């Protein structure tokens, strides 16, 4: 037994001792100083020492010792005294030489932390809404606390093991590595999406990268621990914070310490968190007597941590790291990504070879069953498909779902109803073959839909060989842009909306691919878990959107010859499973409705929830299926939006539904609110621009994500939020045309200010009564960069933004007849640049001029006064209350409804560039002149007289070029001309050979 104890704490000098020798040795010296007996204080010291004494038949009567228990005075060793665990440390403080007693108060803190009187964060910290990992802090106070350190080895990029000093902190949910160490090891990094939070719910800057690493003990190659560590510039200061006394080192001589130099301050390169803490433990912990720290037995050796009575230091180091769900941050990332996608003007999309592969796979594999439904095959990247074990993980997820059922009985009831509905309709069935992949699932509740619960399957659930989504091709983007669908919806006098019931579930999956679509469910916890397989296309596969839309496209090809209007709706008016379409007469609308129903029915699809601004169109639609308001913002199945566009069929107008927000007054809170502003057509561009300006001010002030806002900015934001509900009073006529001709003129405005630039596009159409009206159809804004840019350059950027916006509407313009296009700017400088050859302009200006002229004609650009520029409001921003009263924003300048010859505009022309010469390349002429000896003029001639006659002719030619017709010389060369030529040649020779003397004479004169 003693050998087993020595195995946990094997001092080198005790390795060869026999159990019978140990007691003899210990009776000859103070037992309190032996490392062996200190090591015996594991779990049950009384029974261990009692067994040792019993082996020698050693009783109290036979004991020769004159000492007694220091605690109670009885005849037993002080180590065998039964005491309270709370007082054990205090009662062992006298076992060594008299030292300062530790503080009497009881310390109780989270693991990895020290008692602090004052916390000074060493990182940039701020509060988070949903926390995630890390904090390093310094503490001040009387007790000295050492944190557990160890020397280990870590595998570098070449597979070699290198030494590293680590800090062990079970209060951290993640492990960390310093940037310098990661660079030294040459380990590849990847982005880390988690936020870092430490003590006091405070955020920590950095931690944007993570890497996979392997740790091993310093003396053995096994075991090896694998983890993912987050990269930080600095984990903590040197540990310990000060040198420990020699007495502490002496009392621990002989222990197999994990960090032999634990008493010397040194850098920390790695923090081992709770993710690995349980894997390093190899024995129990020991509360060492005499004010020594706790000894923790690990695979690295004995790790020391805790208070040391002998040391009273002003500083100590503490780390406490907390990790929570990434969902909030991930959701914000998705919201922000979607917001910038809407804000960004469409650009050219290049074809990906994998997308072509997915398209080719569908074309070769899709079929139709007897009912006309389409049968598709899952587009895998490679065959065979290799996936790891997923059933245990899916079972764990299902049990968590059952636990949620216990808290939400209504959710379970809805879930059971949906599963039974799927079974009755044949969407799912009991598994008929072993599953290769099991899909975890959860429910999504949407009160705005008729089917309140949607079962979503998680095909991103990872196995040892990736997830199902990792193996699938996503295919090309077939979905039309939301702005094109909404503009198509505004084209017709009679509008209709409908959606396809359970569109994905109407598409059949080939039986051989259903083995990848298994899931687990049971209605009662007492029942056995049943394995089901999905026979239809589930919601949650990365390839499902492509397959569903590709089926609709194929349906239009296969069955659309007799229904051209319905095909046109599938092409321009579908957004996933929602149809937004219309016609100009009741008869045409009813015909379109019938064609759509019949066409989709042939593919196994059913249209429901019909809505129209014309009651006659809904005569055959049940009352319960009609909606008073159609929330157009729900077309995109994302998070709740604070600005949701909706259609009111009774008034046939578009309006905005304002959802109140209680986001924190931080930069993160502002960003979260802005990202929820759903405005794909830019109708509220001035308001959204104002919000973006407030956010940019925080960037200029370098405010951290979760720090409280400055008072001025916070007040501006509060006012903005308070005024936001006034936007609910805005109504926009839905229909752009009151006749069937669909003939219009496009008007585009570009403007800029020091804050940013904007573009606004209007349609000018003639009404049935001969009146002309102008409607805003699209607008875009951009913030000016933080680096100051000149106003002319910003104006040029606005012109480019206008051109790009027009390009993004080309698909819509194909549906109507555009007779002409007029583009306006209030910058004469921009117009002049457009007229200037690009090679004369500097690179920044030249590139944008070329881009503008490649997409627009120079003859379409005109100058307009600043007060008549419709984009002026969007380029400066507006508070919601002011914006709601700006009627001119919706129609443009008043003169747009008049004939063109009455417009107060000027054609594009060149103006003086003197004020903007900085943008024109300076042209520098360099004339290289080689000075030769005048005698070289004589070389080509055979005689002096011949030379004089020829040069006289040259001089006569020069004279005649400069003189009028009457003064020109003709005829033979005169003697006076020859003498003049000789005089000039002599002057040239003298000027060359006597240039220094001539210069002196000139200077003296």
UniProtKB/TrEMBL annotation:
Residues 93-108 have a biased composition (Basic and acidic residues). One of its GO terms (biological process) is DNA biosynthetic process. It holds the Pfam family Peptidase_A17. Residues 93-119 are annotated as: Disordered. Transmembrane segments: none annotated. Residues 60-81 form the C2H2-type domain. This is C2H2-type domain-containing protein. It comes from Cimex lectularius (Bed bug).
């Amino acid at each position: 037994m003693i050998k087993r104890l020595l195995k946990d704490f094997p001092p080198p000098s005790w390795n060869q001792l026999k159990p019978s020798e140990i007691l003899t040795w210990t009776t000859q010296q103070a037992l309190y100083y032996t490392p062996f007996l200190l090591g015996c204080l594991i779990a049950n010291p009384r029974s261990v020492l009692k067994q040792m004494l019993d082996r020698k038949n050693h009783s109290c009567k036979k004991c020769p010792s004159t000492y007694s228990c220091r605690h109670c005075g009885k005849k037993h060793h002080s180590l065998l005294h039964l005491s309270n665990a709370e007082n054990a440390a205090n009662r062992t403080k006298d076992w060594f030489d008299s030292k300062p007693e530790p503080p009497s108060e009881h310390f109780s803190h989270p693991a990895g932390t020290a008692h602090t009187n004052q916390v000074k964060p060493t990182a940039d910290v701020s509060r988070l809404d949903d926390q995630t990992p890390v904090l390093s802090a310094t503490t001040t106070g009387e007790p000295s606390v050492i944190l557990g350190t160890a020397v280990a080895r870590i595998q570098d990029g070449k597979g070699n093991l290198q030494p590293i000093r680590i800090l062990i902190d079970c209060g951290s949910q993640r492990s960390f590595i310093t940037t310098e160490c990661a660079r030294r090891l040459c380990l590849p990094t990847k982005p880390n999406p988690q936020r870092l939070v430490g003590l006091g719910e405070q955020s920590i800057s950095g931690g944007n990268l993570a890497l996979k690493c392997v740790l091993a003990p310093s003396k053995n190659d096994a075991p090896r621990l694998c983890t993912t560590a987050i990269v930080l510039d600095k984990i903590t200061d040197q540990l310990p914070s000060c040198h420990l006394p020699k007495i502490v080192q002496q009392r621990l001589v002989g222990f197999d310490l994990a960090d032999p130099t634990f008493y010397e301050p040194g850098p920390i390169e790695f923090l081992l968190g709770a993710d690995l803490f349980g894997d390093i433990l190899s024995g129990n912990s020991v509360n060492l007597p005499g004010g020594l720290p706790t000894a923790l037995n690990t695979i690295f050796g004995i790790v020391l941590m805790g208070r040391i009575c002998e040391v009273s230091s002003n500083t100590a180091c503490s780390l406490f790291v907390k990790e929570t769900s990434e969902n909030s941050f991930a959701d914000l990332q998705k919201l922000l990504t979607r917001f910038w996608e809407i804000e960004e003007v469409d650009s050219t999309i290049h074809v990906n070879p994998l997308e072509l592969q997915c398209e080719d796979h569908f074309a070769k594999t899709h079929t139709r069953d007897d009912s006309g439904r389409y049968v598709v095959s899952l587009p895998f990247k490679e065959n065979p498909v290799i996936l790891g074990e997923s059933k245990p993980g899916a079972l764990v997820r299902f049990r968590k779902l059952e636990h949620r059922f216990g808290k939400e009985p209504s959710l379970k009831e809805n879930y059971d109803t949906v599963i039974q509905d799927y079974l009755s309709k044949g969407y799912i069935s009991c598994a008929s073959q072993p599953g290769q992949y099991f899909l975890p699932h959860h429910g999504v509740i949407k009160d705005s839909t008729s089917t309140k619960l949607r079962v979503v399957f998680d095909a991103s659930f990872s196995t040892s060989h990736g997830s199902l989504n990792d193996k699938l091709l996503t295919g090309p983007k077939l979905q039309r842009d939301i702005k094109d669908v909404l503009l198509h919806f505004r084209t017709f006098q009679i509008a209709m909306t409908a959606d396809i019931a359970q569109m994905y579930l109407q598409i059949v999956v080939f039986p051989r691919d259903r083995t990848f679509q298994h899931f687990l469910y049971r209605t009662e916890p007492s029942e056995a878990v049943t394995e089901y397989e999905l026979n239809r296309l589930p919601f949650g596969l990365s390839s499902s959107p492509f397959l569903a839309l590709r089926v609709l496209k194929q349906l239009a090809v296969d069955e659309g010859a007799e229904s051209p209007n319905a095909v046109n709706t599938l092409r321009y008016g579908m957004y996933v499973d929602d149809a937004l379409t219309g016609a100009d007469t009741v008869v045409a609308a009813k015909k379109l409705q019938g064609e759509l129903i019949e066409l989709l029915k042939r593919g196994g699809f059913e249209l429901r929830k019909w809505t129209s601004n014309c009651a006659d169109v809904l005569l055959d639609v049940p009352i319960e299926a009609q909606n008073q308001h159609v929330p157009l913002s729900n077309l995109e199945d994302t998070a709740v939006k604070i600005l949701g566009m909706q259609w009111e069929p009774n008034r046939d107008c578009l309006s905005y539904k304002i959802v109140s927000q209680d986001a924190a007054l931080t930069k993160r809170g502002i960003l979260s609110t802005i990202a929820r502003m759903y405005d794909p057509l830019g109708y509220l561009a001035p308001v959204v621009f104002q919000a973006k300006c407030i956010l940019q001010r925080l960037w200029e002030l370098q405010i951290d994500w979760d720090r409280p806002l400055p008072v001025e900015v916070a007040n501006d934001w509060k006012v903005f939020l308070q005024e936001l509900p006034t936007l609910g009073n805005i109504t926009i006529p839905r229909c752009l045309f009151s006749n069937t001709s669909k003939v219009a003129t496009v008007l585009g405005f570009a403007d800029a200010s020091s804050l940013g630039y904007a573009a606004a596009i209007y349609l000018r159409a003639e009404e049935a009564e001969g009146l002309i009206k102008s409607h805003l159809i699209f607008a875009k804004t951009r913030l000016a960069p933080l680096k100051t840019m000149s106003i002319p350059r910003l104006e040029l950027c606005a012109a480019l933004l206008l051109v790009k916006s027009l390009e993004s509407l080309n698909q819509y313009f194909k549906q109507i007849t555009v007779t002409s296009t007029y583009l306006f700017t209030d910058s004469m400088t921009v117009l002049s640049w457009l007229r200037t050859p690009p090679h004369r302009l500097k690179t920044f200006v030249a590139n944008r001029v070329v881009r503008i002229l490649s997409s627009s004609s120079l003859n379409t650009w005109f100058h307009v006064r600043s007060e008549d520029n419709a984009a002026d409001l969007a380029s400066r921003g507006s508070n919601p209350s002011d914006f709601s009263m700006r009627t001119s924003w919706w129609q443009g300048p008043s003169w747009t409804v008049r004939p063109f010859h009455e417009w107060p505009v000027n054609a594009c022309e060149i103006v003086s560039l003197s004020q903007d010469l900085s943008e024109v390349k300076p042209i520098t002429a360099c004339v290289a002149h080689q000075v030769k000896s005048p005698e070289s003029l004589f070389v080509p001639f055979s005689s002096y007289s011949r030379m004089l006659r020829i040069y006289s002719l040259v001089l006569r030619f020069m004279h005649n070029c400069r003189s009028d017709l009457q003064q020109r010389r003709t005829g033979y060369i005169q003697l006076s001309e020859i003498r003049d030529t000789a005089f000039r040649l002599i002057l040239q020779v003298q000027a060359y050979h006597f240039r220094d003397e001539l210069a002196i004479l000139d200077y003296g004169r």
